[in-house]
Amino acid sequence: MASITDCVVEGLKYPFNDIKKLLGLGVLFALISALSTFISTQSFEVSTITMNFVENANGTVSQMASSQLPTGNIYLIIGLSVLSFIVSLFILGYQYDIVKFAIDKKPELPGFNDVIDLFVKGIKYFIVVVAYNVIPMIVLFAGMVFGGDVSVMMVFILISVVLFIIAYFLLVMAINNMVAHDSIKKAFDFKEITDNIANFGWGKYVGIIIFTVIVYVIIMVAVSFVLSFITVALSIAIPNQIIAISIVAIIEGLFIDSYASIFFNRVCGSIYRESIK
């Protein structure tokens, strides 16, 4: 059975096996980044218009007439948000294939030939992620709504954090199990999921996930540090700060987010492969 470092090191090298496909995924991440920047800009404009009305008219948001609402901006935000979600599903579908290729120990990266298949797999991936996080989210929401006392609210938040952590560790193997059998039902076969983890070793399983997350965070923090300098340089060179920020966001999506995504999902798939030996 491969060691923790072996799986992580292989995952770090894997994205470079096909730079074109790495950049292909990067295009999707860059599109998400560009859409997010534009959505944020439009949302800020809507908020500014709304706040100006409240301050100048001494009214409330509910009192704004429909003609006073920036409906064009609102519809644009909704449309772009839907588009961003659809692109995210394609990314999740590609991550699904990365896990599959890791389980099968294929050295190449998946292709983008069957977009419908990617979209369907992305929906499956999304459903499983939501399903595993729904209970922690309900507990957190209950704490925010019903936790009138600060101490009570903190208890709810603490419980939700613990549940999120437990759900996350189970989710990794659940997605692996779903991908391995190409069945969403297998993502909820808790006996098989826990058996696979036990076969891998609970301590080793938790350790490799924590180690992978730490490596992932180090990569993202280091890149963010470098990109912050690039952002400052572009802000000086380009008067329009929104354009400067958009350029940096696109660069991050194109090269960094795609690499980190492939690395992380490759390691996750490798965990499953080792667990069934």
As a whole number of angstroms, the C-alpha radius of gyration is: 22 Å
The major β-sheet equals: none
Number of helices: 8
N- to C-terminal distance:
8 Å
Overall SS class: mainly alpha
| Anisotropy-based shape | globular
- Report the uncertain regions: none
Helix-strand string: HHHHHHHH
Task: State mean pLDDT (0 to 100 scale).
Answer: 87
Helix content, binned percent: over 70%
User: How many DSSP E strands?
Assistant: 0
> Oligomerization state of this entry?
single chain
Can you tell me about this structure?
Helix 1 runs parallel beside helix 7 (202-237), helix 2 runs antiparallel to helix 3 and helix 5 crosses helix 8. It contains eight helices and no strands. The radius of gyration is 22 Å and the shape is globular. The chain has a domain at 129-194. It is an all-alpha fold. The longest helix is centred in the N-terminal third of the chain and has 39 residues, at 19-57. It has helices spanning 4-13, 19-57, 71-103, 115-146, 150-181, 190-200, 202-237, 241-275. The termini are close together.
Summarize the structure.
This protein is mainly α. 82% of the residues lie in helices and 0% in strands.
Write the layout of secondary structure elements.
Elements: H1 4-13, H2 19-57, H3 71-103, H4 115-146, H5 150-181, H6 190-200, H7 202-237, H8 241-275
Helix pairs in contact: 1-7, 1-8, 2-3, 2-8, 3-4, 3-5, 3-8, 4-5, 5-6, 5-8, 6-8, 7-8
